[in-house]
Each structure stands twice: as structure tokens, then as C-alpha cells.
Please model this.
Amino acid sequence: MEEKTNYYVLREKAVPDVLLRVVEAKRLLASGRAASVQEATERVDISRSSFYKYKEDIFPFHDNAKGRTITFVIRLDDEPGLLSAIVKAVADSHANILTIHQSIPVGGVASLTLSIEILPDTGDANRLMERIERQEGVHDLKILARE
Model:
């Protein structure tokens, strides 16, 4: 049975401290102010295991009028038409593809990096992610970045 992913928006005061520290560690790594996960986690005073446990589950929320950019990494089977189905799902969600890169398949599985802009008045990121994840041949979808 597939596990449905739900997303929530919380006020900062409702978010546990360890999750806020994970966000800060990710910011340190992304900005280059920490050279390693070890250094970042030491600076924000959390364990590396906490960082790895939550790093894919929390992102800062940025609300802007133009829209928001989300970058996904999707592992998918090397099957004709699968990339086209994913692109169609993006188009049907009224999102705009900014960049797309598919690696050469290894062992019949390719990695797809997809950056999209979701417009605030028409796009539904949750529905789009669910639609892509349900697509036959998609192994997994991870959010790499949000702006």
C-alpha cells in the first residue's frame, strides 16, 4: 500500500527546536559557511543522526508573489514515454519547467533533476508531487530545494 505524503505549514514557534536546527545546518552547508555535515551539526548543536533523519523533511517556507521554485530529484525507470508523462503532469499542474536534466540510465534507472516554478494562483505542488510519485516507473521523488 502506498504511503500518502501530507504537507503542513506551521508557525515557527510550533516547530520543534531540532527541526529548526536542521534547517540552520542545511543553510550553513548551502552557503559554504560549513564545509561538512559534521561541522554544520556541531555549530548548531545537534547530532549528525538527527540531521540525516530530518534533512529531507523540513524546508524553509518562502512566500512570494511571482511563484515558488522547487527542484526535484526523481529516480525513474528507463522506459519510453515516462519522461513525457512527467512533463505532462507538470504542464497539467500549470507549473513552468525552468530546467530539466536526465542522467544516462544505469541498470535501467535514470536520475531526473527537474526545477519548476509553481504559480501561487494556479499551482498545487502537493498534488503535482503525488501525481509524479504515483506514475508507474517512478522509484522515488525527493525535494532538493525550494525557493
